[in-house]
Amino acid sequence: MKIALIIVILLFILYFLKGSQTGYVKKNGDWTWVTIDESHGKRLQWIEGIDQNTFTVLKNKSFALDQNQVYFKGRKINHASPDGFLPLTDDEYGYAKDNNHAFFNDEVIIHADPATFEVIEFPYSKDKNDVYCGTLPMKLSREDVRSFRVTNDDKLMARMISTATLSHFLEFHPEYIWLKEQGIEIKNVISGDTGTGETNNKKFNGFKEVK
What SS3 state is found at 95? Predict the structure, then answer.
């Protein structure tokens, strides 16, 4: 009797887990992005413009691609090409690159050189030319790029991602108006305002130098 009860419980758990599957899930022959939250339960997001026959989920399961475009958590990544697309992390931080751009989540990392781009530790990455906080270039000198190191003094807070629409970001940081003139569509600015880093003679909170 006890064995039968245990089997029933295990089957119930397996059924629940299957029904609670999140991420990219195929439903009625179509791929969807599925999330679960406490207030609304399961949410299904149908992925627009997808080629069902060539759709592939990548090693970092937040990313997927088909023969035409690339997706992050079910959203199309503007300016990303499936040719040469490569996720660079396998955790919750969605760094990736293709032959033309580097990306964080579903946004282009502005001015980043994909050939020399590397992730340091969120919120910072770098290439041969600059250091980046989220998607923002920090416009450091070559010497500061070489000596830059992540300190992330508050390890818990440093992991927090800050996302703002471009217009909202510019309200608080009008000196970044040049972001509108990059020739690419920037919907959101992503940064890590509580991350910290330093060079040999400078300190930074997020993308701002500490004066």
Answer: strand
50: left (phi over 0), alpha (psi -120 to 50) or beta: beta
**Using CA atoms, how far apart are residues 156 and 114, in angstroms rounded to an integer?**
29
Angle at 204 between CA 208 and CA 191, to 5 degrees: 55
**CB contact at 8 A, 68 and 51:** yes
| DSSP conformation letters of 39-83 | TTEEEEEEPTT--TTT-EE-SSTTEEE-SS-EEETTEE-TT--ST
Output the pTM of the full model: 0.86
Ranges of each domain in the chain: 109-211
Reported as a single tens digit per residue, the pLDDT across 185-198 is: 999 999 999 999 99
CB 125 within 8 A of CB 117: yes
